[in-house]
Amino acid sequence: TTTFGTYGTLELELSDRILTLTVNRPAALNALSQEVVAELWKAFTAVQDSCTHDAGWPVRGVVVTGAGGKAFVAGADIREMTSMSADEAAGYSRSMQAVTLLIEKLPVPVVAVVDGFALGGGCELALACDFIYATEAAQFGQPEVNLGLVPGFGGSVRLPQRVGLGAARELIYTGRRIDAAEAYRLGLANRVLPTRDDALAAARTTLGEVAAKAPVAVGLAKQAITGATGRSTAEGLEGEADAFREAFTTEDMREGTGAFLEKRSPSFAGK
Ligand code: CO8
């Protein structure tokens, strides 16, 4: 899609306002090289810029997945990493952390469709997404300790938030891989579907459902949830009240409540 730029390591496809972003480096199991990280930043920035009434809200949801049939993303690029200084590695870690924060700030939901390996940085990319749909072939893990490393793209923060401290510690300290059923049991994956096509279709159906709603409200809901994560209840409630106030000032709120009272379907303008 020309609107969102052209990329060497990513494939972007926009259909019915759902953007599918595929990490496409199958020879390295879609490992997050510095080029991939830079392109993810560029692509998500372009999507973010389009999420306004003036730009027409062309994207109402994003599916992130991996190409090649074997992996979602097998982690940071280990080959590239070995020639870095500690400072360069820290910069690499921060640049991908920035991508994960950008995904969390995006005012539309982002769903990771995980088929095959989501390891290390791959698991961390999936964790930055709003939720995960897995296939029966999915494998999750934070194997950094096998390499003498620690999670560097958000795993030490977001994995405990998602699955609880005990399960996260066990996964990170052992480097153990878990299958889709275990990921579902832990709450890491929202759903498990038989194949990649099933999981992609299910993610697009869910995002299609969201696309019919008021986009400003969906964005504010995401902001309130993300903003409350890791905060006290009182701080979280402050953020929720701010989001509620802002939603209350939109035309879409007048339309949604008006349509309810007039017993008709709402038509949202996205402002
Ligand atoms: N980086 C670079 N290349 C990779 C990676 C990777 N993470 N994973 C796989 N590849 C390459 C392999 O080297 C291989 O290339 P080649 O054909 O040229 O030898 C090709 O992909 C296929 O892989 P395998 O032959 O190994 O395929 P298998 O089916 O035998 O095994 C596995 C699949 C189990 C997924 C295996 O490839 C593996 O263990 N990969 C590494 C997984 C891993 O440890 N990931 C964590 C990386 S560390 C990380 O993500 C930390 C993030 C924070 C970093 C902070 C910055 C400092």
From TrEMBL:
Pfam families: ECH_1. It catalyses: a (3S)-3-hydroxyacyl-CoA = a (2E)-enoyl-CoA + H2O; a 4-saturated-(3S)-3-hydroxyacyl-CoA = a (3E)-enoyl-CoA + H2O. It comes from the Bacteria. InterPro entries: ClpP/crotonase-like_dom_sf, Enoyl-CoA_hyd/isom_CS, Enoyl-CoA_hydra/iso, Enoyl-CoA_hydra_C. Coiled coil: none annotated. PROSITE patterns: ENOYL_COA_HYDRATASE. Keywords: Lyase. Belongs to the enoyl-CoA hydratase/isomerase family. This is Enoyl-CoA hydratase-related protein. It comes from Sinomonas halotolerans. The lineage of its organism: Bacteria, Bacillati, Actinomycetota, Actinomycetes, Micrococcales.
